[in-house]
Fold this sequence. Notes:
Layout: H1 14-22, H2 27-32, H3 35-47, E1 52-57, E2 62-65, H4 67-73, H5 77-80, E3 115-120, E4 126-135, E5 142-149, H6 150-183, H7 189-193, H8 195-203, E6 208-214, E7 218-224, E8 236-238, H9 243-250, E9 254-258, H10 263-267, E10 273-278, E11 283-288, E12 297-305, E13 308-317, H11 325-374, H12 379-395, E14 398-404, E15 412-416, E16 420-423, H13 428-433, E17 441-444, H14 449-456, E18 462-471, E19 474-482, H15 491-527, E20 531-532, E21 538-545, E22 556-563, E23 567-575, H16 579-598, H17 603-617, E24 624-632, E25 637-643, E26 648-651, E27 658-661, E28 664-665, E29 679-682, E30 688-692, H18 694-697, H19 708-719, H20 727-739, E31 747-754, H21 759-763
Parallel strand pairs: 20-22, 25-28
Antiparallel strand pairs: 1-2, 1-5, 3-4, 4-5, 6-7, 6-13, 7-8, 9-10, 9-12, 10-11, 12-13, 14-15, 14-19, 15-16, 17-18, 18-19, 21-31, 22-23, 23-24, 24-25, 25-29, 26-27, 26-30, 30-31
Helix pairs in contact: 6-8, 6-11, 11-12, 11-15, 15-16, 16-17, 19-20
Amino acid sequence: xxxxxxxxxxxxxxxxxxxxxxxxxxxxxxxxxxxxxxxxxxxxxxxxxxxxxxxxxxxxxxxxxxxxxxxxxxxxxxxxxxxxxxxxxxxxxxxxxxxxxxxxxxxxxxxxxxxxxxxxxxxxxxxxxxxxxxxxxxxxxxxxxxxxxxxxxxxxxxxxxxxxxxxxxxxxxxxxxxxxxxxxxxxxxxxxxxxxxxxxxxxxxxxxxxxxxxxxxxxxxxxxxxxxxxxxxxxxxxxxxxxxxxxxxxxxxxxxxxxxxxxxxxxxxxxxxxxxxxxxxxxxxxxxxxxxxxxxxxxxxxxxxxxxxxxxxxxxxxxxxxxxxxxxxxxxxxxxxxxxxxxxxxxxxxxxxxxxxxxxxxxxxxxxxxxxxxxxxxxxxxxxxxxxxxxxxxxxxxxxxxxxxxxxxxxxxxxxxxxxxxxxxxxxxxxxxxxxxxxxxxxxxxxxxxxxxxxxxxxxxxxxxxxxxxxxxxxxxxxxxxxxxxxxxxxxxxxxxxxxxxxxxxxxxxxxxxxxxxxxxxxxxxxxxxxxxxxxxxxxxxxxxxxxxxxxxxxxxxxxxxxxxxxxxxxxxxxxxxxxxxxxxxxxxxxxxxxxxxxxxxxxxxxxxxxxxxxxxxxxxxxxxxxxxxxxxxxxxxxxxxxxxxxxxxxxxxxxxxxxxxxxxxxxxxxxxxxxxxxxxxxxxxxxxxxxxxxxxxxxxxxxxxxxxxxxxxxxxxxxxxxxxxxxxxxxxxxxxxxxxxxxxxxxxxxxxxxxxxxxxxxx
Length: 764
């Protein structure tokens, strides 16, 4: 506040004395300012302040004063100028009132510090003032004294306090609004766990913030602000014995302070627990050190969704800090606002976690299939290593192999991280008997017999025992362990282990079944090799490419049978299904069609009989597509039945035209009373008949496009001019280039060139 303009009173010779003592009468100063302006300049300076101002010299005489000094000390200007400064203040203790003046004998410091002191008015009354006095840097001894009433000083302090509180409130408000604006309609879970925690820390000017989300057995650490990134924070807080229980009982934010350890506690050495003070209720409780965050003062706030506490927000300072109820209320408001977002985040996180664990099971499945397919001598060892690695990575836990003792089967020996080789206190069957409904995965708790035993050994004492059953002649089991400072395995993680057990068992049984099927397939293979018999007047070639390297016998097959009287029977088929069933059906079809062809039956009749045969042959819903053709080289006629098979292509030698043999009937082995029809085509010398299975036209490129009938026709037009020899190998190269050597289905192709037909045949 600025005071009104005032007059400056001079004592006799006062102007000259003031100029001398304040150092403003030098030649340079007077030439720049002017002697007459000195008083006005000083008056203006003193008028800028609302405090009382006195200037006195080394003898204690008042040289200058302003209007506020007149009011404060209850004297007019004439009474102030030249007065001994000591008349306004009681003497310092031990100083006589009539002693010669000494500046250091004044009852206040001369270094600019504020000092409350009693001041004496002209009528002898005392009132409290606040004085600041300092020596002026000028020739001689000159002192500047500024005084204000104690009430005014208190008002100024209150004003500063209110300004500080207002600034602080504005900071809190802006921080809270930023949290709201940053999370409105946010679908990014990381925003809630990163940005918001940092904003809470900055808003409350705290060292850092921790976020714990509720899980099955307690609160799991899900978010840490930047200030606590390198600090050791508990990863898991159990429901029963942590600050979460106090918060749940209180229903709102708690103001907690970790007490200093007592001398007796320090003498004992390692502290297993610390005393925590609730500053709201002044109650103290003990918490294990493992459950305390790296903070000294903290606000612990619940986040409620409906009637369930779904999260804990822990904001704190690494040094003792004055905790405010307003900050606690602010944190309650933030938690209330975040409840819906955190509830959604919990659902999202569980979905993400479930997807991660499902993906881990699928990856193990593929790895195991690959190991089995390689027929390595170390199948059990490699499979075990892959399983252990997957479990350890997915669950962030220690994985310990468990073996049955070959001499005492009821005793299990484990290689533990700290204790080494030890016999477990119970056998596998005894352990699984305690969980009859889920014997493959047995949870291990601290209070269980096995958990207590592990704890005594100094090992991680919670997790699960997992039994994969027999694998290549040996029972495979493992322990999945976590330390007590970490969270127990939750329901999704236990389900992950159960799914893994079931999948490993399926792959194991599948590998054993595959080995059994392999022997059968090898036996079938010897009796049903695809072959093209020599038929005079026909040049033939065939090719078969399996989509799987491990396949011994596929569902695709073909045959060319030499018949009497310059005739031949060409067969191509594709049986649905895989493995031994498809192979046995293929063998039966080839055998039956060969017998029918020797009986002289027309193709449609052959297929009709085969349909009835297949309906009673297979116990599974197996069907086949077929092309059966009888070639009469003397008449130059091809009679065929195409039963659900891709249409054959006839390439005319004279014109180069391509014709599709498109008389079609239904598949074989699917329905009774199916109608099958014969088609006919003329053949001439040099004509080429092209047969193929659907794996050829349905081959896919990387972009998903099909090779198709058009692609096959284009390849034929391109390759036939290069000669018939090696035609199918070149066509297969086209397929490999198109698919990137990645066939989805087996491919079979047969090409017949009619060299001698009709008259040319009779001349020979």
